[in-house]
Design a protein that fits this description.
globular; 28% helix; three-stranded antiparallel β-sheet; 88 residues; alpha+beta
């Protein structure tokens, strides 16, 4: 199975947005409607390689400081369909 490893910037959330999301029972960040800005994208052919690449990207200072995050997304999973197929 192929994987996509993505390093993204984390959007800041205002206190009012957090409160509204909590009160309304909805997500604060919905990747399907408003994805975080991508900083770097890498492909891997198997899970082990994807995890090695994700660990390497996690050493970037901005990731360690909590300003960016690493996501490992499966690309070939036939069991997942619809908008959640991106794994976000």
């Amino acid at each position: 199975m192929r994987f996509l490893i993505v390093r993204t910037s984390i959007r800041a959330a205002a206190d009012a947005d957090i409160t509204a999301a909590w009160a309304g029972g909805r997500r604060l960040r919905d990747e399907t409607t408003r994805p975080e800005p991508r900083r770097q994208v890498v492909h891997a052919e198997d899970r082990d390689a994807a995890l090695v690449l994700a660990r390497a990207l996690a050493t970037v200072g901005a990731v360690r400081a909590g300003k960016q995050r690493i996501k490992v997304l499966p690309l070939d999973d036939p069991g997942r369909v619809g908008p959640d197929a991106l794994g976000t």
